[in-house]
Amino acid sequence: MILEILKFPDPFLKTKAVPVEKVDDGIKKIIDDMTETMYKAKGIGLASVQVGVDKRVIVLDVPGDGDGERVQGRNLIALVNPEIVSSEGQTIYEEGCLSVPGITADVERFSRLKVRALDREGRPFEVSAEGLFAIALQHEIDHIDGVLFIDRLSRLKREMIKRKIKKALEAEEKAL
Ligand code: GNR
Ligand code: NI
Questions:
Q1: Which three-class secondary structure state does DSSP give residue 46?
Q2: I need a labelling partner for 27 at 20 to 30 A (CA). Which of 17, 46, 95, 154 fits?
Q3: What is the mean pLDDT of each run of 10 residues along the chain (176 residues)?
Q4: What radius of gyration do the chain's Cα atoms show?
């Protein structure tokens, strides 16, 4: 089932999601619906909070450097209760977000990290990440803490972006 992706300034995007206690059929359904929604929206990741769910679940499918054409599911990964266990280095990448359409900005993140989580069957696992996968993982973990990439910009840049979005929304209203 395709879910609706909430857009800034929807207040729900500030929700700090709660840990999943048990990876049951309800959580599996959320994972599957989020995966379908991510592919439909052509995103490389999606977090529960973006679709109005307050449980700590994220999905990603980040194309690898040598992958060539994009094949859906090749790098698909679902993480329940993800936790960064170690991180190093720093990198800057021009990020976008399905909840902040039409806006991109350079964001500083860790360049490498190890993340511990539960998989779709509720089994614990650890994954090492670098490159775009590491960036997207941090972007999605931010979402389940109620943090958007624009929250990681300088106050000036953030205020400029907020004003731009507000103006665009007002123009949309007028056109109706
Ligand atoms: O599809 C997405 N692309 C992207 C590009 C750079 C940095 C982060 C991302 S994640 C984004 C999908 C999204 O908004 N996930 O929350
Ligand atoms: Ni996002």
A1: strand
A2: 95
A3: 98 99 98 98 98 98 88 94 98 98 97 98 98 98 99 98 95 90
A4: 16
Give the closest residue (by CA) to ligand 1 atom 13: 97
**Which burial class, exposed, middle or buried, applies to 18 when counting CB atoms under 10 A from its CB (0-12, 13-18, 19+)?**
exposed
- Looking at residue 70, the DSSP 8-state letter turns out to be -
Q: Where are the domains of the chain?
A: 11-175
- CATH top class, domain 11-175: alpha beta
Determine the atom of ligand 1 nearest the C-alpha atom of 100.
14
Instruction: Mark out the alpha helices in the chain (DSSP H runs).
Output: 25-40, 131-144, 155-175
Task: Identify the H or E element spanning 102.
Answer: none
Is the sign of the CA dihedral 127, 128, 132, 136 positive or negative?
positive
Cα 49 from Cα 145, distance rounded (Å): 9
The answer to whether the CB of 98 is under 6 A from ligand 1 is yes
DSSP string over 157-175:
HHHHHHHHHHHHHHHHHHH
Is the CB of residue 59 below 6 angstroms from any atom belonging to ligand 1? no
| Catalytically active residues, by annotation | 140
Confidence at residue 68, expressed as pLDDT on a 0 to 100 scale: 86
Quick one: which ligand is closest to 107's CA?
1
